[in-house]
Amino acid sequence: MQKWNLVFDLTRCTGCHNCTLSVQDEYVGNAFPGYAAPMPLRGARWVELRRRDRGAFPAVDVAFLFQACQHCDDPPCMRVARDGAVRKREDGIVIIDPEQARGQKQIVDACPYGAVHWNEELQLPQHWNFDAHLIDAGWRAPRPVQACPTAALRALKVTDEEMRNIAVVEGLVTLQADRGHGARLYYRHLSRFTHEFVAGTLVGVEGPHEVCVAGARATLLHNGARVGEATSDAFGDFRFDALPPGSGAYSLDITADGYRRRTIDFELAKSCWLGEVSLEPLHAESDRSPAHPL
Amino acid sequence: MSMVFSALLAGLYALIRICAWRSPSYRAQLAQRDFIAQIRVRDADIGRWFIFSGGKVRSRAGLHPRPDVTVSYETAAQAVTLIIGQLLGRHQTEAAKNFRLQVVGPDELIYHFTQILIAAQRVGWRFGTDLGGGLKRFTGMTNGGPCFVYVQGGKILRITPIDFDADDPKPWTIEARGRQFTPPRKTTIAPHGLAWKSLVYSQDRMLYPMRRVDFDPNGERRPENRGKSGYVRISWDEALDLVAAEIKRVKRSYGVSAITFNHPSHQTWGYVGYWDSALYRFANAVGHTKMQHNPDSWEGWFWGAAHHWGYTMRLGMPESYGTVEDLLKEAELVVFWSSDPESTNGLYAAHEGSIRRQWLKELGVPTVHIDPYLNATAAFVGGKWLAPRPGTDAALALAIAYVWIVEGLYDRRFVAERTIGFDAWKRYVTGEEDGVPKTPEWQQAETGIPAREARALAREWGRKRTYLAAGGWGAGFGGACRSPTGHQWARAMVCLAAMQGFGRPGVNFGNLQSGTPVDTSFYFPGYGEGGISGDLVNTASAISLYQRMPHLLSMNTPMQQIPRMQLPEAILTGKAEGYPRDGRSLEGQFLPLRYPAPGHERVRLFYRYGGSNFATMPDSNRYVAMYQSPNLEFVVNQSIWFEGEAKFADIILPVCTNFERWDISEWSGVSGFAHHLQTQLNHRVIVLQHKCIEPLGESKSDYQIFVALAQRLGLGAYYSEGMSDLDWVQRIFKASDLPAHISWKKFMRRGYFVVPSPPERLRAPVAFRWFYEGRKKDVPEPHPLPCEYKGSYREGLQTPSSKFEFECTTLKRLDPPDPQRPPVLHFARSSEGIETPRAATYPLQLLTPHPRYSFHTHCDGKHSFINDIDDHRLRVNGHDYWILRINPADARRRGIADGALVKVFNERGAVICAAQVTERVRPGVVHGCESAARYETVGEPGRSADRGGTMNVLTPKESQIARAHALGSSNCLVEVAPYDDAGAAMAAGAVRADAPVREFVPAK
Asked: Which of residues 2-61 of A touch B (CB under 8 A)?
């Protein structure tokens, strides 16, 4: 049985918000009997794009996270729903019935992903239903996928086994995977949003000038084990990513031709920039007079 | 011949009756007026009359004693030719010009009768695709790309981008570095395109004409109350009669030059309805003082860079053909310098470039991003971020040139053979001229960029094949070119590019935004070609469109102009001086234009059209005083939503959106100064903009309003040529290359046409390759004009030497010389820099780039879907505040928390914003986009803080260069402080500002 899945690749998302806008366009002012009642004009973020800035000037990056109903295989909302207000279709799509679910505010609270929104005027819990009415009319993909300019969002209708394979090959994960909801929204490079980086800038000396130290080797150690290796680029920058937040003490070992080896110990809370790391030249007879102190 | 003539007329009668029988809408059209029409010849008493009464028509051969409308031809033979010609779709312009065809009667009736005859040919036209169940799919065009429009029950259901089907051509493929790159077979759409439904049905739509309550044209006009008073509903007749009467009164009392039309640089898309089309035609028919626009997105390029290399027909920006392919194949580094296409979308190109920059990431080509803000493109593409202080970029560029000179990292052969003046440039850069070597250490003090990074950038750039993306388009546009020092930046960009030998493989301007291998020879006019305007002087109509679609010429007579940036001063003080945006030559920009012109009366009637000056023009508060001046006796506002300047009018004429009228256009088709702007797209798409729904309320299209006004001035037949907007749409279709590829009938249904990409061999050659190799210019642009070539045609550049000039001859010839534009680029500190005395009070530099999700004032405010995006506006205490980004260190020092309200201010004014505390802005810089749609002052307009987000209240109005007309407002000095909005609940003078948001329903 082929079922719908959604894959969101964080590295392909530009943050354009076409996904959220397309859902507003589809549901504000429109009722799709049996599928969805209209979405309020303001504040109903059935799909959401969250932004996270990491780091500190000048080592900063930005990632976006697409969030919506996960169309779980074992939906917590369905467990608390009465009178068949929530049903799970054979193709994987979950529908909160716009009639049956009236008054059932408990459905909102049951969702561990915050994907169900209470419509006060209609007294109705609402979510993004994968544009099931369009899918059933023959559309190849839901609106957010169609509107995404870089295919950061993809809709895959495949068997569960195929999806498992794809997840392995592409390195996909789901949110709260350990809770066993059976989410159908997969993420690629999720660590851009959930994990941290550490960056630094190597500064050396050439004659009277400060220079960027390129080609230096930086080795990252955590609890004695080597966690990663990086080479500094033309600007002397290096970076290690996908580190667990608040993971404690790290040690950074830096070696560069013509410079003394240097070790830096630091604590990782959130993404950080270790700053300008000055390397001492091996041959001390060079006149060290940086032109302007920063 | 007279028998044939009579037979034709009888046939016409039969045709009208058949159409009335077939078509309910045709019957309704007949029922609109009761009148008697006569068609006849003048050399004999032969003809046929038609009596229209109660929706029915009676007719007989002969002459009627009292016809209301008479259409007469000189002779029967000519009549036959013309009538048959008309039936075959050929137009009668020439006959009208030579008075072979004459029409006599009231303008409205002539128009009505002509339309009855023309409409007979339209009965049976089918538009759109029927999807069953009452659902129809139409096509439309937004400023953010083409779209499908789904309509049911007379209401827009949804708006989506277009997925191509099997009938559409295959896209191009580029082979690069062992991979194949093919764009997806669909169109993309920008956020402001996707949110259109919320704009159509916005409760801020103006649904009927209005008059300011205290405006009495026959008594007290009370101009001092503009912006404060409310409005009362009036009928269209009353509104149009009043406007027409005022036009006549002002012309009679003062002269033609006492009228001016003020329109923005953009409009809702469509070539019949565009400002340089329907508006120009009307404005020329009436006569006016012209608003001389500054170059806007081109500023520093036009007033500065052009003198180094020409390209004035592109207002100083480079050609960009073939650079997508060349970059993907050859580039080893891309330097994005004030370049954020993910936010600015190349103006009209939706997200076409995003997938191409995704390819760049996949190829692993390193990038550098130079911007005081980590912009959306830098965030998406990744790479090295360098954040200079705003306005100091030229210093960084000079330091790069210094390293290249000292370390020999430039293209010596190109410099020797294709340029002149390098020695003078070198003397300045090395410090030989002024004792100040422009070293990386020197620039650090100016820009804040560490010397070592400037040096590293110079070395990387000089050693690698590097594409320079200068401005949003890569080949120019926007960004730093609009700052107070924008001309320095633009000049620096071209000088750096010249040092590296632009045009050789992998070395050019670009960021993959422009230069795709789409077709460049298929003809469809761009909006720059003036649509239906007939204006051969101020549009590019004369080049092709005017020949292909002959129509009546329109020509404005007054020689007086107002430089747009000084509009308030011109009105308030009666004086203004500026310089023209003359793209024909390098020297045209040096001629001052002065207002008032000798013997010309000053402006009294102000016709405001479209999106607002507030928030798009610098020092926005000036416009309040302008509007409230008694020097403006009458103000009309013709626009769509009640926002911005609409509340400063005497009479408001409500316009419908382009989903409620007919039009036709090409995606990103501009022509004129932006020739082949379609090379930003993955596919060229031409769209019939269906009239998807009826206009809301009593709103009308601009064209319809101008026809109605023209009729009251006796200009109806001249202005309209008897045609409706749909008739003009068909004429534009016929004037293009479309008929050879798709029939009108099919185009009406399908709604769009994708121009096939050429085979590889026919792709446009790479920009500047011809110049680099010393060949004749071979790219498909008709620039510069033949006489601008100093040597043989198509050889060399437009400059006096035909080469790239590091030392600009045209600037050397300036007498007296311009101290702000020395022949060799010199660095000068910004008037809005942190070293100025004002910086002691206003120590932060505010950047005001273009917003990401809205498009100028379009799509912001007015209950648009966009308002829900927290990166656009943040809802605090029930009000949507504009976002101001501030660095954590600057925020902490001022006690500002993320999401808190702040007041941004300087001596020009104050704006209340919601703070976004972020590391993405460098310390010392704050970031708040320009062009908010809301101007909502907490107290008196012009004299109190604005909480609508009008950042341009804070920016300087002064031209970058005193002897130019150059916007220099994209950054300025400000201070920021926390703000308590407890007292700002009700905005006085902002009518309807706090109307409760009711549930979204289509307005009746």
From this structure: 11-18, 20-22, 24-26, 28-30, 38, 40-43, 45, 51, 53, 55-58, 60-61
Q: Please confirm, yes or no, whether B527 is among the known catalytic residues.
A: yes
Cβ(B697)–Cβ(B339) below 8 Å: no
Are A16 and B869 inside 8 Å of each other by CB? Answer: no
The helix or strand, by DSSP H or E, that contains position B912, with its residue range, turns out to be strand B909-917
B731-785 pLDDT per residue, tens: 999 999 999 999 999 999 999 999 999 999 999 999 999 999 999 999 999 999 9
Contact B497, B401 (CB under 8 A): no
The verdict on a CB contact (< 8 Å) between B191 and A121 is no
User: Contact at 8 Å (CB) between B973 and B906?
Assistant: yes
Query: CA–CA separation, A113 vs A107, rounded Å?
Result: 12
Please give the DSSP secondary-structure letter assigned to residue B515.
-
State how far residue B916 is from chain A, nearest Cα, in angstroms.
Answer: 11
Q: Give the three-class secondary structure for B183.
A: coil
Taking alpha carbons only, the member of B981, B978, B980 closest to residue B886 is: B978
* pTM summary value: 0.95
d(C-alpha B681, C-alpha B892), whole Å = 44
CA distance B512 to chain A (A): 14
CA quadruple A62, A66, A72, A76: dihedral positive or negative? positive
A183 SS3 class = coil
**Annotated catalytic, B752?**
no
CA distances from B584 to B67, B284, B300, B302, B896 (A): 51, 22, 17, 11, 51
Structural domains of chain A sorted by starting position, each given as residue range(s) with its CATH number in brackets: 3-192 (3.30.70.20), 197-279 (2.60.40.10)
What is the C-alpha separation between B38 and B56, in angstroms, rounded?
16
Residue B194: its chain A contacts at CB < 8 A? 18, 21-22, 25, 147
What are A80-112's pLDDT values in tens digits?
Answer: 999 999 999 999 999 999 999 999 999 999 999
Model ipTM value = 0.95
Distance of CA B814 to the CA centre of its chain: 32
**Binary contact (B197, A38; C-beta < 8 A):** no
Q: Of B201, B527, B579, B772, which residue is the catalytic one? A: B527
DSSP state of B303: I
CA distances from B741 to B531, B689, B729, B736 (A): 21, 18, 17, 10
Contact B947, B984 (CB under 8 A): yes
The two tokens of residue B903 are 């007041």
CA distance A224 to chain B (A): 31
How many Cβ atoms sit within 10 Å of the Cβ of residue A62?
Answer: 24
- Per the CB < 8 Å rule, is A147 touching B194? yes
Rounded to whole angstroms, the Cα distance separating A16 from A30 reads: 24
Residues B920, A62: C-beta atoms closer than 8 Å: yes
